[in-house]
Structure formats: structure tokens, C-alpha cells
Amino acid sequence: MTTDTPAVDGAAEAAPAAAPCERGATVWLTGLPSAGKTTLAFALAERLRAEGHKVEVLDGDEIREFLSKGLGFSQEDRHTNVTRIGFVAEKLAANGVKVLAPVIAPYAASRAAVRERHGEHGTEFLEIHVATPVEVCSERDVKGLYAKQAAGEISGLTGVDDPYEAPESPELRLQTHGRAVAESAAELHTFLTTRGLA
């Protein structure tokens, strides 16, 4: 006795299998200003897109302009900014997008809240610590923030006169100083591969 269902109206006997739904995840790159988070995120995004992955980069500066305009840099406002980014990231990741979030997120409690939200929805969250020392960051000083802080023009610079709580147990700790961007991006790509995400 057979349980096969005959083709109807000349249709093919078996439809081609649908492509598997791509697995999404949030890759949160935390570190000091000028640590290289954004540069690394865009380099990795380019590689992932070339491989056919759906990728979004949630750049901290762009989020400040378009999603968190009006927020300051108090601990409460920073927490609000981070949790907003985390909300958007989880929604995208839950729909199969690789979300790269190069965001300072200086407070451990804020990052924990984002991780918890992902966990509640069964969405993967990977914390990557871009562990560039403050001395190197101040030499790079991509946006001139360290110079402005030293000149007394600004205050509350993360890692200098405002706290940065480095992750104690990130999924990956990256040392980017003294290395080419491509080398750091390759290390992060290899790590994602081991997690089945690349």
C-alpha cells in the first residue's frame, strides 16, 4: 500500500525544497570611543553580504540622530539609547538578519538588558568586546573627542572621565590594535562560522 499523493493537473511530482530560513543574530560590538567598532562592523558586513547573508549595521551615531535624538549622555539616557537599539536589533535578528551593532554601551546592566530581551525571544545575542586600550584610542581619536576632553571642551567621555564597564565574559574579546582591519574582521568571521552564522 502506498501513501504517495498523485500529481494534480500535470503538476510536478515533487516541488523543489524551499531554501532554509537564514538564522539571524545580534553581534554587539562594545568598546571605547575610537576602538574600531564601526570600522570592523562595516568590514565584516561587506564580507557577509558578499556571501549572500542579510546584514544590517546599527551604527551608534546614526541611531543617535534618527532614533534617539534628544537623548543626552547621562547614565539613564545612555541606558535608554542602548535598550532602544537592542529592541530594533532583536526584531531584525528574529527575522533572519545578521545585525552588527557597533555601540559603546558602557554599562554592563544595559548590555545585560539587551541580552535578556534576546533570550526571552529565543534570539541569539553575541557580545564582542573590541578591547582596544584607551591609550591607543586616544591616539586614533577619530572624532577628536579625546583632544576636546583634554582641552576641557567636553566632559563625560567614556573611559576617561566617565565609566566604561568592560564585559567580564564576552563571547569574544578582540584585540584590534597593531592589526589590519581585515585581520580582525577575519577573526570575527571565523568566530561566527564556528557558531553556524557565517
Which key phrases capture this entry?
198 residues; alpha/beta; Rossmann fold; 5-stranded parallel sheet; 40% helix; 12% strand; globular; kinase
Summarize, please.
The chain is α/β, with parallel strands linked by helices and 198 residues long. 40% of the residues lie in helices and 12% in strands.
What's the helix and strand layout?
Blueprint: E1 25-30, H1 37-50, E2 55-57, H2 60-66, H3 75-93, E3 98-102, H4 108-120, E4 125-130, H5 134-140, H6 145-150, E5 172-174, H7 181-194
Helix pairs in contact: 1-7, 3-4
What does the model show?
By secondary structure, this protein is α/β, with parallel strands linked by helices. The protein has one domain (25-194): 3-Layer(aba) Sandwich (Rossmann fold), CATH 3.40.50.300. 40% of the residues lie in helices and 12% in strands. The protein has seven helices and five strands; from the N terminus they run βαβααβαβααβα. A five-stranded parallel beta sheet has the order 2-3-1-4-5, sandwiched between helices. The longest helix is centred in the middle third of the chain and has 19 residues, at 75-93. The radius of gyration is 21 Å and the shape is globular. The protein starts with 24 loop residues before the first strand and ends with a helix. Residues 1-21 have low confidence and may be disordered. Pfam families: APS_kinase. GO terms for molecular function: adenylylsulfate kinase activity; ATP binding; sulfate adenylyltransferase (ATP) activity.
